[in-house]
Amino acid sequence: MNGKNSQYAYGGICVNGFVMIFIQILMAGVAAWLYMSEGMWQIIDGIVISIIWAVMTKGYVMLEPNESMVLVFFGKYSGTFYKVGYHWINPLLTTKKISLRIRNLDVDPIKVNDKVGNPILIGLVLVWKIKDTYRAVFDLDSRGANINLSTENFVAIQSDAALREVAGKYAYDDEHGQEHAHELTLRGGGEEINDQLESKLNERLSMAGIEVVEARINYLAYAPEIAAVMLRRQQASAIITAREKIVEGAVSMVKLALGRLEEENVVQLDNDKKAAMIGNLLVVLCADDAAQPVVNAGN
Asked: What is the tally of structural domains in the chain?
């Protein structure tokens, strides 16, 4: 439900505030003239006008852009006032001002367990605003506190819960290699994880008339107690992958070298010499350190 829908907008008395100030000045002048009169009824009329004048002074309201005011008439919801500027409305209405501006929430990293049970630290940045003023005021229990502060506390608690729920559905990273690369992970999910988080937050916050503009994971890491172990695992995985590429390239180079030697009849090698040459070339190509050549100077 949209808070600016005509169904919820205030449709009662509304007068420009400066016009009403001019009217009250005239009323004050009339009351003063009646007080100076000698007749009793004139004085009573002056008292009545003074009482009305005093009540009318409570009807002035002022709103800035992207602000609203929920109006209640003796416990009954009368609508939400959105008009920007200085106005006068029914002074018997109780008013509650609500900001409709966009707000940020930076959720500090919290410790949760991912899908496989690894403890991780995950943080969230949230952009939100109040969409339905009726729900924000009457469905959310503020317990006498400022309504804007109550909504901020509600958003903070629900954001924590939604973040824990989403983080618990996925693994931090793919631990099984490329064969399971199609599985969604927190580290590799990117926009898809953020979309699911935003959907979950909208589901939780809509009950209080709050709309999520954007939600993104802004911090993701292993918890300190397992960070070093996971780092070594990642390094080992990277070394294995690199070794596979090195061996694959070395075999291709050895094959190319033997083929060229045979095609150009540079040297004739029997199987034993080919095996020795292949072993030497693989050692040179796959070694971490540069190989030291040994020159055969003959007998």
From this structure: 3
**pTM of the shown model:** 0.68
Contact 223, 119 (CB under 8 A): yes
Domain hosting residue 269, numbered range: 228-286
Write out the chain's pLDDT in tens, 299 residues: 444 555 578 888 899 999 999 999 999 999 888 888 777 888 888 899 999 999 999 999 999 999 999 999 998 999 999 999 999 999 999 998 888 999 999 988 888 888 888 888 999 999 999 999 899 888 888 766 678 888 888 999 999 999 999 988 888 876 655 445 567 888 887 888 899 899 999 999 999 999 999 999 988 888 877 656 667 766 666 777 777 787 888 788 878 877 777 777 766 777 777 777 777 777 776 766 666 666 555 55
Q: Which two tokens stand for residue 16?
A: 């420009």
116 and 218 in a single domain? The answer is yes
Handedness of CA 283, 285, 291, 297 (dihedral sign): positive
Q: Assess whether 233 and 276 both reside in one domain.
A: yes
Q: Are 137 and 37 members of one domain?
A: no
One domain for residues 256 and 176 = no
